[in-house]
Specification:
3 domains, 365 residues, 5 helices, alpha+beta, Immunoglobulin-like
Length: 365
């Protein structure tokens, strides 16, 4: 009888344990009905919306969106880190002509080399390939990851990965009506299939049955640059090879807060026209022989720079030093011939560390 009792107990364990383990697993991953990296106990860990235009650099922008959010969460404070999408696009082999950087190559590059801050390689917003090189010493200003991987397509897996790993990169197809999205929960209604795009999923909302997504098309698109897309409207693309089209990154480390200058050319701004100093959104964006996205300048104009941790600013025009400013506000009166020109601004701190920004402009007169 004792032997029979042991046998029966064993059979019961074999029968009950799998179901018990499954229930435990369900309990461990009881997902909340709402989650967003824009609201973790009242704190928004995402960084400001950026604009990739006019270049097809979405893979790099989505990866950086995830990285910057994870950096602030890891540091436990909001300090608006700004990483170089241009570096992460070109160095792993991206090409404007080809129209993309392989997102797998970019993720592997993050593991092996990392990505530096924007001041090492600012995005020039050019619609063509060009010779590139990050500032000397960029290797000491990088953020790296320890791992990346793919997430299964089902909603539960994506939600779970969002909570465990942070914002996710999603490769998706989109239709023409996506360009005209202005708000609400997006569902495809009209228009032909236009192409593919990569964005960062930062959260979800079961009450509206939608994903919360960060795009890189500027603040004039969507909900000030953000998107809510229905669960059943996330058309995950398949151009990435064997992966699922939803990627996570994790294990960030490196120089998360480099002690270097921060610089931004505030004026002129891409996709704007300046008439004797007055600023207007550019209306006719596609004009032959005028670089797409380049600010257009008519009449007198003052270049304005915002900088932090800075002792002086050097202004360059087409590679030639034109002016040095050691006091705020950092400004320079542009004087040049008509045509396409490149403005560069270099910021120096008291230790000699350098950061830069760049913008191409088209001068009419």
């Amino acid at each position: 009888m004792r032997k029979f009792g042991v046998t029966m107990a064993t059979l019961l364990l074999i029968t009950i344990l799998p179901a018990f383990a499954e229930n435990i697993e369900e309990m461990q991953y009881d997902l909340p009905s709402y989650f967003s990296w824009r609201d973790i106990n009242g704190t928004d860990y995402t960084t400001p919306i950026k604009n990739q235009a006019p270049a097809p650099t979405c893979e790099a922008y989505a990866l950086v969106a995830s990285l910057e959010t994870k950096m602030q969460y890891k540091m436990g404070k909001i300090y608006d880190p700004d990483l170089s999408e241009a570096h992460l696009f070109f160095y792993p082999g991206g090409s404007i002509k080809a129209g993309y950087v392989n997102i797998i190559d970019a993720a592997n590059y993050l593991m092996e080399n990392g990505v530096p801050d924007e001041g090492c390689f600012p995005d020039p917003h050019r619609p063509y390939d060009f010779p590139f090189e990050s500032l000397k010493g960029w290797e000491n200003r990088t953020v790296k990851i320890k791992e990346w991987g793919w997430v299964e397509h089902d909603d539960k897996s994506i939600k779970k990965a969002l909570i465990e790993h942070g914002p996710l990169m999603v490769c998706m197809y989109f239709w023409k009506d996506f360009y005209y999205y202005r708000g609400g929960v997006y569902r495809h209604r009209w228009g032909r299939l236009t192409g593919g795009h990569v964005m960062a999923i930062v959260g979800y909302d079961d009450s509206q049955e939608c994903w919360i997504v960060k795009n890189s098309w500027g603040t004039e698109w969507g909900e000030e640059g953000w998107l809510r897309i229905a669960y059943d409207s996330l058309w995950i693309a398949e151009w990435h090879g064997e992966g699922t089209g939803v990627m996570y990154i994790d294990g960030i480390y490196g120089n998360l807060m480099p002690d270097v200058p921060k610089i931004q050319i505030e004026e002129p701004e891409i996709y704007h026209t300046y008439i004797f100093g007055k600023k207007f959104p550019t209306i006719f964006r596609k004009i032959l022989l005028i670089q797409k996205g380049a600010p257009r300048i008519i009449g007198n104009f003052t270049v304005k720079v915002k900088a932090e941790n800075t002792e002086k600013i050097e202004f360059y025009l087409d590679g030639e030093l034109k002016y040095v400013d050691e006091e705020e506000p950092y400004e320079w009166n542009l004087e040049t011939n008509p045509g396409l020109h490149t403005i560069e601004a270099y910021a120096y701190d008291e230790d000699g560390d350098i950061s830069k920004d760049v913008v191409d402009v088209f001068v009419f007169l």
